[in-house]
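Supplementary Methods, section 5.1.

A reviewer requested that the exact input to the structure prediction be made available. We therefore reproduce it here, unchanged from the version used in the analyses.
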Amino acid sequence: MRRRHAVIVDDERLARRELRTLLEEGHAATMHVVGDAASLAEAARIIEATDADVVFLDITMGQESGFDLLPLLGSDVDVVFVTAHDAYAVRAFEVNALDYLLKPVEADRLARTVERLLTPAQGEDESALALTADDRLFLRLDGARAFVRVGDIVAIRAAGDESLVHLAGRASAARAPKGLGDWERRLPERSFVRVHRSTIINLEHVLRVEEWSHASYLVYLRGLREPITMSRRYGMRVRDRLG
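The structure derived from this sequence is encoded token-by-token as follows.
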């Protein structure tokens, strides 16, 4: 089995040293630490210069946020988040079935993480936890990874096996490698509703609904320049939800 190549990113020297020691003493056969970094810029340089495929990423790094490193990582790099106990962060990791370590890192917990990193993923690993508008989803959007608040999703359109996601405050839609059915299974039913066989909207962002023809309506959403067409088949459900 090929060893995974890891980079440790943490602004605390002692924390970097302790995690490196745990990895080197307990998992040398499967994990090789190729470097560690105290800043995001330094981390990006090391990751680019090596064949690192795992990053142990601290969340709070002085004035920096570990999340800002995510867009710079290749799609083949696995991320293990390292954090002090933070309800928001832990909830986000659990909702997304992402691996994380709480400080101080314990050897037994690290062993489970390493085992997971060495086990090939069987499809998309998604948590069974029900989502709320305040939850953060860990998404790949236009090839970059980021946490997105569920409530900031305005609309989602089908694009073959993928989807186009409209986000509040973002001028154009972003492509995500997730089909509309996957979205519909996970998003909170109270806020999100299908208005067309290829479109889901967030009712919290609806400005108004206008009748367009005998067969359809136009739904105007906050932040979208053009309205979305809603078939009459779905219209009654939406009008009932909106009151």
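The first strand starts at residue 4 and ends at 9. These observations are discussed further in the main text.
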